[in-house]
Design brief:
Helices cover 37% and strands 16% of the residues. It is an alpha/beta fold. The strands form five sheets. The protein has a seven-stranded mixed beta sheet with strand order 4-10-9-8-7-5-6, with helices on both faces. Strands 13-14-17-16 form a four-stranded antiparallel beta sheet, covered by helices on one side. It comes from Microbacterium galbinum.
């Protein structure tokens, strides 16, 4: 999906629809510190509806068995459910079934690609893997706003191969310096890794321009879709990326499961990362032959119930409609941005960036540490994230060491957004931080 397509009209969720949806999420009826829970930390981990909780429990109580092993009925049923889940996730992002690799999370998926390219670079994979090999003089490109998971693996890959890591800088507001693309993505670039949506700023990056430049020089593209797949319509083919990663626990699914999308023709020439059982065809004491993708990258016992629960989450999101979820969050995000921005002493990071956003805002309160802001809000039953959000370079570029982040989702109400805004204003009064 192109960023411009986000302007296509979609009807936001109504207040009544959100109230009905909230009944599907048992945790949202909780109280915290004597207050109704206002959960504004979905950017870190989203909550799970009954449909997801029930899917995992049903598998455990009815179908639990090892997949792709055994010839008994239960094993066959478990395998069918596992592969149906793969097909569901593939459809959700516009991929084919055999282009989805199950991982434990997006971090593992990113490391899978990094280590596979590293293995190719030392000669594993044979002549077919030659296009994947990195050498001294080659370049890996990422950006200054990345989550550490989309930065450190590439630092390590550069160190192992002798390649050079280049970083697309940000402007003073925190936006990508797209005017420097030709400077940073040169004909020496072999891989470009970029986040679709910033987990700190909430901006939807114009990744089409980054991808187009990568295509001009023949570089592969890795898309971090962890903050876009839960909130926006996503089509990896329309975006023309080579790889994409997502994490189940950010999109109504369980922890312990994520997915890597890889173009079939690339997965077919990539050497494996993890090795062992279930990813081989023939083994002798001296060598092994590996299965075709995606099983080549799924060594050992798989996260079966989690994958099935993630598919249930995808079905839940699909039934509501991703365009409507995006429209709902755009409204919440604007309300959050406007409300926080109107408070004296509050700086919303990236507020000056003129790009579409998901319903997320990180902010700094003058004179109050983010941890104190978060604790004050928690005393009111409001859950937010504090710290550097695994994005230290971005915070450093913007001149802060940490921030408070409020992130919404399909079950977030206007009243909860207002509670955050009122709570921040009250925190400033409480700590005596007004000028």
């Amino acid at each position: 999906m192109s960023t411009s397509s986000l302007t296509a009209p979609a009807t936001p969720l109504s207040d009544d629809e959100v109230r009905r949806l909230r009944e599907d999420f048992p945790i949202l009826a909780s109280t915290v510190n004597g207050h109704p829970l206002a959960y504004l930390d979905s950017g870190a981990t989203s909550q799970r509806p009954f449909a997801v909780l029930d899917a995992e429990r049903e598998f455990a109580t009815t179908f639990n068995s090892a997949v792709h092993r055994g010839a008994h009925t239960l094993a066959a049923e478990a395998t069918e459910l596992f592969e149906d889940a793969r097909a569901t996730v593939a459809r959700f992002i516009g991929a084919d079934d055999d282009e989805i690799v199950w991982t434990s999370n997006a971090t593992e998926a990113l490391n899978l690609v990094a280590y596979s390219l590293s293995n190719a670079s030392i000669g594993r994979g044979g002549a077919a893997a030659e296009p994947l090999r990195l050498r001294a003089g080659d370049e890996i490109v990422t950006t200054e706003m990345e989550h550490h998971a989309n930065l450190i693996p590439w630092q390590e890959l550069a160190a192992r191969t002798g390649a050079t890591l280049r970083v697309i800088p940000l402007d003073d507001d925190g936006a990508l310096r797209l005017d420097t693309l030709a400077e940073h993505i040169t004909d020496r670039a072999k891989l470009v890794a970029v986040t679709h949506v910033s987990n700190v700023l909430g901006v939807i990056n114009p990744v089409e321009r980054v991808i187009a430049r990568a295509r001009e020089v023949g570089a592969l593209v890795m898309l971090d879709a962890c903050q876009s797949a839960p909130h926006l319509p996503l089509d990896v083919r329309a975006l023309d990326v080579d790889f994409a990663v997502l994490s189940g626990h950010k999109m109504l699914g369980p922890t312990g499961v994520g997915a890597l999308y890889g173009r079939r023709e690339l997965l077919e020439i990539m050497p494996p990362f993890l090795t062992g059982g279930s990813m081989i065809t023939t083994v002798t004491t001296t060598e092994a032959e590996y299965m075709a993708p995606p099983q080549r990258f799924e060594a050992g016992t798989q996260r079966v119930s989690q994958a099935i629960a993630l598919a249930a989450a995808v079905d839940y999101l699909t039934e509501i409609g991703m365009p409507r979820i995006a429209a709902h969050e755009a409204q919440l995000g604007a309300r959050l941005l406007d409300g926080l921005g109107a408070i004296d002493g509050v700086r919303v990071l990236g507020a000056g960036i003129a790009l579409p956003r998901v319903g997320l805002a990180s902010f700094d309160v003058a004179g109050i540490h983010s941890h104190d802001v978060g604790q004050f809000l928690d005393d009111r039953g409001i859950a937010v994230r504090v710290g550097h959000h695994c994005a230290q370079p971005l915070h450093r570029r913007l001149g802060v060491t940490s921030s408070t982040r409020a992130s919404t989702y399909l079950y977030t109400t206007d009243a909860e957004v207002d509670a955050v805004i009122d709570g921040v204003a009250a925190a400033i009064d409480f700590f005596g931080a007004r000028s």
